[in-house]
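ENCODED BACKBONE
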Amino acid sequence: MSVKEELEKLFEERIVFLDGGMGTMIQRLRLSEEEFRGDTFKGHSKPIMGNNDILSISQPEKIVDIHKQYLLAGADMVETNTFSGTRIAQADYGLEDLVYELNYESAKLAARACKEVEEEGHGKKYVVGAFGPTNRTLSISPSVENPEERNVTFDELVEAYTEQARGLMDGGAHILLVETIFDTANAKAALFAIDQLFETEPERYPRLPVFISGTITDRSGRTLSGQTADAFSTSISHANPMALGLNCALGAQDMRPYLEEIAKTTDAYIICYPNAGLPNAMGDYDETPDITGSLLASFARDGLVNVVGGCCGTTPQHIAAIREQCSKFPPRRRPSKPHATSMLLSGLEGVVISSESNFVNIGERCNVAGSR
């Protein structure tokens, strides 16, 4: 049975649980610059403190331990420590030439943690290869004075994500997750890179399940590049994700209406892993495991989710509470494809054109000065 077939069976049987914040757990270790460097990077010319991904090379046992804490708390899946695992993001630290190794080793560590926990009798576990958004954006200029300026191209992003995908799949990822999407154009580059590998090298890279998770940045209900939740869903629908949903930026309470929007527009399984509420004035998260668990349990009770977990501020205790409170409810039933016979379009907002639509004005000249 393929991984896709295993997951489809599992998703129909019960709600599945993702891990929580890797960065949250790393911050709790309070590692020094010397500890980030380890023996491997003692002579590196740039500071690397804060480069969490590189710990998969310099402090592998600490990363395995974090994975195992989440797995033993009840997670079925753990994300690789690769949120900044692209050549573009690692250039800030002068470590771009280690990107393949970083992703490969991160996937191997997650796979090792899964295997060790499985051998202890905790059931089947899965490695989720994580693709972060990078620190550049295709849709927004880095300069207020020069709105057409861009500091990255689509092709550069595709190249960077291809390198990351190779490392993650060679290292043993079962699932690929394009996450924390604040700019849909960046996500399209990642999805194109992944699909291109599946298409051009099928023997080395057989097709794996792909999950997609966007980020609604605030209560405006839009991504940073301006799309509503339903427009975002339409924009990436060509990728046929196995699971689609939201993570980061918001806590569960504020995230819910936007997740409901997405659920109405897709036949994919729904994934949701919110922050532990909103950060306080010190940047910390005060939402307790019981509160996060009860909020996500209301999602589960209403048949909204298939995969749940946590993002910033969540810990193994949060995942344990989420599992305890959500397990009593059945998973969301995957619907037939919404608007299957309609044309779905999206810019900043979504548009559905069906046989029942009246006259649709495709474009109109706008005279801001008015006319007689």
Summary: The longest strand covers residues 243-251.
